Amino acid sequence: MMQPADEPHDREDVTDRLRRRIAGEAARGVATGSDARRAVFRAARRITGEWVPADQLPDTAEVQGEVHRRLDATGSLAHLTGDRFDALAAVAAVLATVRRNPARHPEGDALEHSLQVFDRVRSERPFDEELLTAALIHDVGLAIDRRDPVAAALEAVDELVTPRTCWLLASLPAATAYVEGRLGYRARKRLEAHADFLDVLLLAECDRRSREKDYPAPTLDEAIKTLRTLEAEAGEAGADGSVP
After folding, report:
1. Is the dihedral of CA 40, 46, 52, 55 positive or negative?
2. Which of 38, 78, 185, 220 is most buried (CB neighbours < 10 A)?
3. 158, 166 Cβ separation under 8 angstroms
């Protein structure tokens, strides 16, 4: 015997399952650099092949929850992606879930802040892929362990970046203290003696300035494309013996 009273409940179960599937697929999109809302629409089309009513789509909070659920032990989504740059995009994408104090960070989430830093560094050092990479991922530790974000960031990206990029990330707090006049004498001298002193100082200054609301920052996709292009150009230059 049919029980019509159960039909709404059954429909609700189907809708919930669809929302979870779309949220899961959207999390993979976030891992490759898409923002959450765009990833939801793409995931819905991919899964259903048709238009899905807005009330059946997961919201940004649901997608972010799925992103966090899929983080690996280092706080990365790299296991969901392909090459090194996909992995870097996955690491950086998690910053969209990190909210900062709006009084000190009117620019929004940590990803928006990092993209502003990336853009400002790019205006000064457009061909320095290692420095630009550091600019993009300098805050990833905040999404993993706020008690020790630098160590968490270095662990998460250790196999994805060069030793120079690791040094820039590790030295950024000291460079920030240097810019603000808080760094001790010996630490100042050690920092000043390093070959990349001026570059980490630039990173610290761009980090300090990148708190602008409605700043026209590039998207994460655009930033990753810039890094890919720089690596490809460096590879071509190395192959023909020229200097970029």
Report:
1. negative
2. 220
3. yes
pLDDT in tens, 137-155: 999 988 888 889 899 899 8
State which of 16-25, 101-110, 146-155, 235-244 shows the largest mean pLDDT. 146-155
Domain definitions of the chain by residue range: 11-70, 75-240
- pLDDT given for residue 74 in this prediction: 61
Nearest CA to 202 among 114, 127, 133, 131?
131
pLDDT of 1: 43
Nearest 10 degrees: CA dihedral of 209, 38, 79, 112?
10
Q: How many helices (H) and strands (E) does the chain have?
A: 11, 0
Mean pLDDT over 195-204 rounds to 97
Of 16, 15, 58, 18, the closest CA to residue 36 belongs to 58
Q: CATH assignment of 75-240?
A: 1.10.3210.10
169 and 155 in contact (C-beta within 8 Å)? Answer: no
